[in-house]
Each structure stands twice: as structure tokens, then as C-alpha cells.
Amino acid sequence: MYTILNAIRLAWRNLLRNRKRTLLSTSGLAVALIILVITDGLFDGIIRQTFDNMIREEQAHVRMFAKGYLEEDIPGLDYLLTNVDSLAQRVTELSGAKTTVRMKMPATFISNGEETLLTVRGLDLATDQNVFRTLDHLVVGQNLDGRSGEALVGRRLAKEFSLKLNDSFTVLRKSAPGAMNSLRLRVHGIIDTGHPDFDNNSVIISLKDAQSLALVKNAATEIAILGKRETDANRLRKTLRTEMPGYDWETWEEGAEDFMPMMRMKRAGSAIFIIILALVAMVAITNTMTMAVHERTREIGSLRAMGYSIRRILWMFLLEGLLIGFMAGAAAVIVGGGVTLWLSKVGISLAAYDDIDFGMAISKAMYPALTLGNILATFVFGIIIGGLASWQAAWRAAHGQVVRALREGML
Amino acid sequence: MNDLPVVHVENVIKNYQGGKVRALRGVTLEVPQHAFLALAGPSGSGKTTLLNIIGALDKPDEGSVIVADHDVVKLNEQQRTRLRRETIGFVFQTFNLVPVLTAVENVELPLEIIAGTTRDSRRKAAMDMLERVGLKGMEHRFPNELSGGQQQRVAVARALVKHPALVLADEPTANLDGESGSAIIDLMKQMRDQLGTAFIFSTHDPRLLERTESVITLEDGCIRS
């Protein structure tokens, strides 16, 4: 029986007839596929890193709010959780998850006669690091130690307002009872989290100071809950919502909703670019296969004469295209996968783009992610492109007139 | 095997270019089994067209063509492909060997598409056939490592390896020098004697016609003698 191995052997040898041409068309597709692997890895890495930063800086897995808080356009102090110590304890008992209390409120920042609107975040210093990494990102000075009047500021905010350690500034806002209130704070440290909301326009203070700015006691805007895995978020919320009705709950995925359309757009933009590259590579393969058919017309005629069916001739040429796709795909897996893996270890430094706000919670370096799914998809994509690109030439070879092929060397 | 002719062509007409070129004008021909028949005639006389029609590569406009009990005119594309695969061998003027395959691999090609053959049986049959055509020791050479005469011997082996009832050879000696051409004709005759395969070949070389048993001369699409 005619075996697939014989067919592959013949296709391979046919490809080697014109090595330079085969190499060129394979390289073209390989380059497109390598870029695809790296770009995909980059986007996946950014998404993963961004989600990780979102979870470990601000979202946690689930957050608990007072009923009505999430309906607010700019959440303030109208909907506060009260008796937060016992609430947090109850959440921990019910879920087994780690919890911390935070107070987040917009405020006016005033320094050296200049002012801006930013977010004041009050952190429970005893438990915050159980859930978040915010306090791990100190780059200058010292962390908060619970003394009143100390603050951490984001790196970019410090840069914009030329804030140095021990510089003083004021935050001002309307308190929960309604009266304006202010706090005089001193820069105790500067943080660099990679999360734009923290680095650009946040002042971090102790929960006690935040409560004193809001003129409330044992109240806060949210309780953040960190389970074992991010995929547990929905299950965690369901349990807590059932056991503790009358509150608003938000999972990290819901918190990341604004970010996803932007990522999808960027990914679509990149996909268009890659499709254009793939099309160019396809044209090169089509050209290679058309030339191959043209050069082997008499051979095709002979094979048809000796009883090779149309389908077999079609497959013979398709196989050559598929082999080109296979080789390009393999190159993409090895080279693209290798580069992505290497970059995932060393990272792509963003130090040179220090002043650029990417609008995403990425750190000072991007770490592409290499996934088996992406690698396999690219490999299969390469083979499909090879097949599609050779289809027209293969069809022509298979359906040409045998008599004309033998006599005139034309199909 | 019965005594029916291997080829029976009756009143075959073939026109090209909408009737402007009349390639065959009512050809009738009967080729017995084990025949060794030459189709002679000048270029354009219709030799190749007749071979193509007998070989189920082309269909006549009119007339009937019976090859090994098969009515070629009534067969569809698939059936004609099967007829060629199982019953007819071809030898071409330009050899048409696959250059990326060795001699033995080229000879194996027709067997690869016949159901029921194994890799070992294919290799054995191809080696045997190459030995028969005098190419023992050259089985693993590629076509470009063989002379024209040797390449045509490979082509003959390729045509015969499946033991067809009929081999059609279109100008098999046209690309060979006189000595090699004569050797190929002698080889085909020898194979006919050994295997009992009928051979029909076209030529316009008068020196080769002397070596054949019967000659049919075509002129302007008609049989003259």
C-alpha cells in the first residue's frame, strides 16, 4: 500500500530540489510565526502580570463593601462598612481566607502651593501584607510603622511634586459626617508598585489615620479577601454572599473589567499585523509551489499516466506545503519559544520608558509567558498556512490535462 | 487468458481546436496479445494521439476503444485511472523519471498505488525488474547518475514492474543515440518474450522499424498500411 511515509519522503526530497527557494519561503513563514509566538507570549505575560498586580495591589480575590458602594460613580464615604474588625474576623472564619481592611477615598493633595486630586488609601498595617504586596514595594525611606502622620507616596507622584523624604504635605477631603477635614502628613517612604493607580496618584497611610481623616471609628470602605487560588474567587464570593447577606461583593475579574477591552484591542491590533506577515509568507509559499508545479509538469503527467489519482497528486503537492508549514512551525516553536522562555526569565526592562504610563499594572520589567496552548496553536497555524498556500498550485497540478502535461509540459 | 485482442480500436475520430485539426480520421486497429507493434509515420500523423486514446489518457470524439476488455469510451475519470494503474504501462520519450528518487524507487512507484503490496514485495519486484533490464548494481543511482539509455531502461522497468497487459511507448528512442535506441527496442522485445506483455510504440526512425514485427503507418490521421 502507498504509505504516508513514502509520500512524506517524496515531498521532502522534492522540497530539497530547490533548497534556496524552499529555505526562503520557509524562512518567511518562520519569521512570521516566531513574531507570533513572541508577541503572544508578551501579551499573555502582560495580562498575567497585570492581573497578578491587580490582585496583589488592589483587588485581592474578592472584596466586600457596604451595600450601595459599588453603585457609586466615584465611591466615597457614603457607604461604609462599620464594625470592620468583627466583620473581617467573621469573613475569615467563614472562608478560611486571609483578610485585611482598607479605606480608600478621593482627596485633594496640597504640596508647596500646588494641588491635585488623588486617592488616599488607609492600610491596616497588621494584616495588609497578608493579602497585598503594596508595602513590599518600598524603594526609598521606611515603611509605615503605625505612627500618626506618616505616609508613603507613589514614585511618580513624588517625582511630579518633587517630594523627598520627610517633606510635608496636606490631604484634604469632606469627612463622613460632612465637614471638611485635613491631615498634615510627612513622606516616610516612596513606593514603586508598577500599578499606575498607586504610583501616580496615591498616598498610603495607616488605617487609623485614614479613619481620622474621614472622622469615623472602626469603619472602612472595604474588606479585601485573598483565597488560595484566583480561580476560587467566584466560589468564595458565593459562600460569603450566602452567609453574609446585605453587602456588596466584587471579584477581581469584575474589578478588571475595564482593562480587558483595552487588552483585546491591543491584541487585535497585533493580530492584524501578524496576519499581514502571514499573508506575505503565504504568497512566498504559493510562489514556491507554483514554480514547483510548473517545473514538474511532465513528471505529474507521468504519474497520472501510471495511475496516480487526482487526489493523490493533490496530496503530493499539499504535503510539500504542509511540510514547509511544519518546518516553519517547528522553527517558531524552537526559536520563538526559546526567546520567549528566555525573556520570561530575564524580563524586558522598561527602565528606559520610566516616564511612560502604560495604563496597565505592569512592573519595571515585562515578563512574557510561554504557554503550551500558544506554542501548539502557532505550530498548527503554520501547518495550516502551508497547506492553504499550496492549495491552489496542488489543485492545478492534480486537475491539469494529462495529455497536455506530457506533450507540451504545460497543465 | 482468452484470445481476445488486447486492444480493439474501431473507427476512432479525434479532432482538436473545434474540428480545425483532425488528428485521427476513422482509425480501426486490432492489437493481439503479446504483440510488438510499431506505429510509424511523420510528425503530426496522429501516432501520439492514438497512443493517448489507447492508453485511456484521452477520449475519442467518435468510435470505440476496447483495452483489455474495458470500453475506454464509457469509463469515467476514476475508472480510466484504475485501468491505467492496473493494465497499462507507459514509456515516454523524455523518460520522465522522478529525479529525486533512485532507480529502484522510481520502479517501485507504480506498485505503491496498487492495493495489497508490501514494502518488501515492492522492493523485491523492482530489484528483479531492474536486473531483467540489465541495471543490476545501479539500483540506488539517481536518474542524473545514469546515461540516457540507462534512464530509459529504468522507465521500461517501471512500465513493466506491475506486469501490465499492455505497454505504450511514445517515441521511446527519440532522445537516444542510434545504438541506445536499438538496445531499447531489443530490450522491449525481450521483455515481451519473457513476460508476454503487448508493446505498442511510436517512432519515425526507419532504422528501428526494421527491428519490429509489425508496423502500422499513420498519415494525416489515417492508417496507410
Give the total of beta strands of chain A: 14
Give me the strand/helix succession of chain B. EEEHEEHEHHHEHEHEE
How big is the Rg of chain A?
31 Å
Low-confidence stretches of chain A: none
What would CATH call the class of chain B? Alpha Beta
Shape estimate of chain A: elongated
- Overall pLDDT of chain B: 92
Outline of this structure?
The complex is a heterodimer of chains A (411) and B (225). Chain A is α+β, with helices and mostly antiparallel strands.
Please characterize this protein's 3D structure.
The complex is a heterodimer of chains A (411) and B (225). Chain A is of the alpha+beta class. Helices cover 54% and strands 19% of the residues of chain A. Chain A contains 14 helices and 14 strands. Chain A has helices at 4-15, 19-59, 84-95, 128-131, 155-160, 196-201, 207-214, 233-243, 252-255, 259-295, 297-305, 310-346, 372-399, 402-408; strands spanning 62-66, 81-82, 98-111, 114-123, 138-141, 150-154, 168-174, 180-191, 202-206, 219-220, 222-226, 247-251, 348-349, 365-366. Chain A has a six-stranded mixed beta barrel with strand order 3-4-9-6-8-7. In chain A, α11 packs across α14. Chain B has 225 residues and is α/β, with parallel strands linked by helices. Chain B has a single domain, classed as Rossmann fold (3-Layer(aba) Sandwich), CATH 3.40.50.300. Chain B contains seven helices and ten strands. Chain B has helices spanning 47-54, 77-87, 103-112, 119-132, 148-160, 178-195, 206-209, and strands at 7-16, 21-31, 36-40, 62-67, 70-71, 88-91, 166-170, 198-202, 214-219, 222-223.
Features:
heterodimer, A: 411 residues, alpha+beta, 2 domains, 6-stranded mixed β-barrel, two-stranded antiparallel sheet, 14 helices, 54% helix, B: 225 residues, alpha/beta, 6-stranded mixed beta sheet, 10 strands, 25% strand
